[in-house]
Amino acid sequence: MIPTVAVPLANAYRGRQAQCSPVLIAPSGTVILLLMAEFRMITLSDTALVAAYVIFIASYLVFALGKFPGLKIDRPGAAIIGAVAMVAFRIVPAREALHFIDFSTIVLLFSMMLIVGSLHLVGFFEWSVEFILRRLKPVHLLPAVVFASGVFSAFFVNDIVCLVMVPFVLAITRRMKLGPLPYLLAVATGSNVGSVATITGNPQNMLIGSFSGIAYSDFFFHLGPVALVGLLLNWGVLHWIFMRGRTRHASTEAIPLPPVDLSHLTKPVVVVAVVIVGFLVGVPPAMVAALGAAALLITRTTEPRKLYDEVDWGLLVFFVGLFLIVGGGENAGIVTRLLAFARHWNLQKLDVFTLVVAVFSNLVSNVPAVVLLKSLVPGFADPHTAWLALAMASTLAGNLTITGSVANIIVVESAKPDVHIGFWNYIRAGFPITLLTILFGWGWLALIR
Fold first, then answer.
1. Domain count for the chain
2. How confident is the model at residue 365 (pLDDT cuts 50, 70, 90)?
3. Contacting residues for 274 by C-beta, under 8 A, at least 6 apart
């Protein structure tokens, strides 16, 4: 048993006035972690402590702005630089660096990228979207785009879903002589809302699934209804803003879409079906996804290089660097101070925590927000609900602005030069969608916890 005088003695060791640390009132498991962070902090020199704060703040500034002012440093670049600096200043000892990286999250993310990339290469998404959208009347196009984007994003990383949906939506709206803006917004917002349903819906959910230990089926049971109702709200808001009171005479001629080769579709679809069943029956997601990815790499037809090109290596590097930056923040005592801040502002209240997560996710982007806030949740009275609230709020908050999620940026950039989606074009729909879906998500979690 660790004596309760440990922290005051550690402070006295540095010549400071001994104080009773607020961490002593946390649950016993959290006490041990925080005491370890406190003892790691006392071994750092004043120079290293200052460096830790500078590196941490500078890194999160780039995460918030998207690039460092005056330089071409993007988020993955900032993560690499910050991680290297944390090790160089010995804030994170080189021999301990691997301990801060959550390899379960990295393996799950990498494996899902390979699986989704394999489906993309054989034309699964194109075939599915073409099958759905060819058979629609113009009046049904908007809800079809919302729900197709949402359902695909619930089980697959939503970035590729957006990459596939945008050209199809542009082709169909052009043929039907419809304005493409509401349908492109439906792709972006629908993919974000749908991805809240499962652990594999987006990178931050994968991270939460790894750290929380929540089973895939448990996660889906609690947040699946949030995604379903959220998609209905999403459709309602877009219809109210763009379709209310308008009568459109759209063309009903056949839609010429690119042909899709289905000759290599069987194996990836079977593997994906097995992987999803494995998720639902309780096999560790990282393990079953890795087995599925390994099976797809055994092939006589697909060049491995093509499959590797489907992997977002920048995102993987971003995660690794982010783990080390936050690990350095833990060693420097930054996370300990955040815990004290959390108690002061009563973040354990579900409504307060949901609001803080939503705001913070828009300030620094949702993945950096989750990596930092994950350290607070284990000390909460109800960590299970807090983990779900963190996943829900960080994901749904991505609909607020164009830069709120990677999926939004993909839609905006992929639509150029055919359509320009400006800040105000987006936020007039993004704001009510974000507000309504988060309110429902908060109410749902408060009801069922």
1. 1
2. confident
3. 292
How far apart CA 85 and CA 81 sit, in angstroms, is 6
Nearest to 337 by CA among 13, 140, 56, 131: 56
pLDDT tens-place string over residues 138-178: 778 899 999 999 999 998 878 878 888 888 888 888 878 88
Residue 35 located in a structural domain: no
Residues 6+ apart with CB under 8 A from 298: none
Looking at the domain assignment, is residue 357 inside a domain? Answer: no
Q: What is the SS3 assignment for the chain?
A: CCCCCHHHHHHHHCCCCCCCCHHHHCCHHHHHHHHHHHHHHHCCCHHHHHHHHHHHHHHHHHHHHCCCCCCCCCHHHHHHHHHHHHHHCCCCCHHHHHHHCCHHHHHHHHHHHHHHHHHHHCCHHHHHHHHHHCCCCHHHHHHHHHHHHHHHHHHCCHHHHHHHHHHHHHHHHHHHCCCCHHHHHHHHHHHHHHHHHCCCCCHHHHHHHHHHCCCHHHHHHHHHHHHHHHHHHHHHHHHHHHCCCCCCCCCCCCCCCCCCCCCCCHHHHHHHHHHHHHHHHCCCHHHHHHHHHHHHHCCCCCCHHHHHHCCCHHHHHHHHHHHHHHHHHHHCCHHHHHHHHHHHCCCCCHHHHHHHHHHHHHHHCHHHHHHHHCCCHHHCCCHHHHHHHHHHHHHHHHHCCHHHCHHHHHHHHHHCCCCCCCHHHHHHHHHHHHHHHHHHHHHHHHHHC
Q: How far is CA 200 from CA 158, 210, 309, in A?
A: 9, 11, 20
Domain housing 202: 103-316+393-448
Q: Give buried/exposed letters for 65-104 (b at 16+ CB in 10 A, else e).
A: beebeeeebebbbbbbbbbebbbebbbbeeeebeebbbeb
Domain contains 375: no
For residue 376, tell me if it sits in a domain.
Answer: no
| Amino acid of residue 14 | R
Q: Which pLDDT tens digit goes with each residue over 223-256? A: 999 999 999 999 999 999 998 766 555 554 555 5
Question: Tell me: the pLDDT tens digits for 171-211?
Answer: 888 878 888 999 999 999 999 999 999 999 888 999 999 88
